[in-house]
Amino acid sequence: MKRNLTTVLALLLVLIFGLNGLALAENTSDYHDLIPDVAYIDDGDANHTLDIYGAKEKAEPTKTVVEVHGGGFIGGNKTTNTDHSIVFADAGYVVVTPDYSKIPRGVSFPDVIRELFTVYQWVADHAEEYHIDTNNIFLSGDSAGGYYVLISMAIMHDPALQEYFGVTLPPYEFSGYVTTCPHCDMMETRENLGEDKKGPAAYNANTIGADILLDDDLMSHLDLFNCTDPSVFEGLYMMTTPGDKTTGASVLKFDAYLTEQGVDHILKSYDPVENDLIHVFNIGHTDYVESIQANQDEIDFMESLLK
User: Is the Cβ–Cβ distance between 67 and 85 less than 8 Å?
Assistant: First the structure.
């Protein structure tokens, strides 16, 4: 029964986020430089563990990426982005891929945000052990994970949001923020709530639940367009593709908002060359020619910011 429920959830997530967005790796343990299942909160909860790529073979402090997986806030796990994490690791980075609690299984967005800030602190606390260069740490995420990167970026630069979410900043600043097809418009998710709404977006909204999405105070602090001064997003990197029917429109809306506000940022959009491109194509199919270019562009962006 548990396996059948997992299969059903996987199929629903395919409908919501596209097949490319659900490339759940089955053989993460086969990668030659992987340290799996490290607890960042010692409570026995698998959601509070992380995997580390590229650290075993390092001897000196090494540039690092914290990569936050997607899954519409309700699914996915720390192996969802394995192939993409390996791309970063093969480019010379230590890659930390945390799991986190899924909504609404007894948690809400502030709980997940606090978990992720615990991860950021864990990285600092274990930097020497895992050869992490705290002068060169990047935060990366896709889809829902991309949203968590964006709200983390806002929180890192806004004391009022730090107080609201009850987080303490890590003793380092992220060198850059990289988002792949990020979910940008939380208020749009609320608009898909209701029994009269149909389709994958409605399923996602109704799974998150009315108790969360109709909480005006919470939503006002989650709304990237209004929760903070837009200048906090200075230097943000985003990518998308015209074929992204999941978050593509919200990425373009957020890009237009930042441009209107005079915020310097980067948006890259990838057209099909040899393959059909949909949501987070470069995560699910790292071997696509378009993915190779998109992932190299992300790496080049990070390389340009190394200290």
Answer: yes
